[in-house]
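Students often ask why we bother encoding 3D structure as a string. The short answer is that it lets us treat folding as translation between two languages. Here is a chain of 389 residues written in the first language.
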Amino acid sequence: MRFPALFGYGFRPFFLAALLAAALLIPWWAASLAWSVPLGTSWPPSLWHGHEMLFGFITAAIAGFLLTAVPSWTGERGFAGWPLLLVTTLWVLGRACVATSAFWPPALVAAVDLLFLPGLAALVLPPLVRARNRNTPLLAVLAAFWATDVAFYWGLLHRDSGLARHALLVGIDIVLLLVTVIGGRIIPAFTSSGLTQRGAANPVRTWAGTTASSVIAMLAVAVVDVFAPETAAAGMVALVAAILQAVRLAQWGGLRTLRIPIVWVLHLSYLWLPLGLALKALALVGVSFAAFYLHTLTIGTAATMIVAVMTRASLGHTGRPLVVARPTATAYVLLTVAGAVRVLGPAYLPLAYADVILLAAGLWTAAFVLLLWVYAPILCVARADGKPG
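And here it is in the second language, the structure alphabet:
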């Protein structure tokens, strides 16, 4: 059977799925909050929102990244055809069950949705093990991420919304750990490449110890949030992590990339990380303007990093030049403004809270509609250079 181009490589269906989830879920959530548009779920609305952005949108992007990176790491053939179609179907079934969860037994929704990450792991684990690849431990991080989803559903099934929220918080921490590990590899590498092409000599200089200290700090953030969330101790750990992440980012020379959007967006996404951790530290000691710090880490760090990686990988792996179109650069800016509005708008904009949500959601949605306009055709058609994949 000949499969369409969409199932010719791992990033294609999942990057498209992530873009569609982002473009649909946020306006649905905002309309529910502002105008009581039904969500199709019996879950508390804030839990639905948090879960679907974390285990719908972000998880799709993680899957697209892993299914594209593992063949590069191991030198084996890329994932395509029936295996890719089956694991994509698991993601779609999970989203469909959650979107209509008011009509299904809660245990069934949980069982279907929890199939996806083990299915993804079953696909990527064998080549990693065969190659004895140094990235295999990332699957332990993926397992921990899946465990937070299990905890979320346990909380829902036992009507413990506090446990469900706690699980989402730790899940976000795990995503930030992945950003720290993966971003720390790709940002200096892509910065060096971009600056070298423009004639810069020795474009990136790294300082010894910053990688290990940043990773350890983010592990500490996650561990403290497991056992003592939203405490002064969690704030102190977040502050230390913010300082270490800021030092790490400074060494990569982001200001030198301002004429290269496909590179500066990577630095921008990482900049949100120390900012968000610093705001978390302030929020946990009662500073009111920092109360919505979590969206600094989700919209700012996670979503912007996802967009940065997707827009670059989709071009590179389809045989296109690594130069983003103007609508893509515009989407980067819109997403950044959406994050700023969502975090600081409730404190500083002369708008009702629901109107701040609508404004931020509108900016977010505009960004992802632009990205869909540019990248949906790229993801759904054959490579520009005629090669397979």
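Translate back mentally: The chain has one domain: 5-380. Keep this in mind for the problem set.
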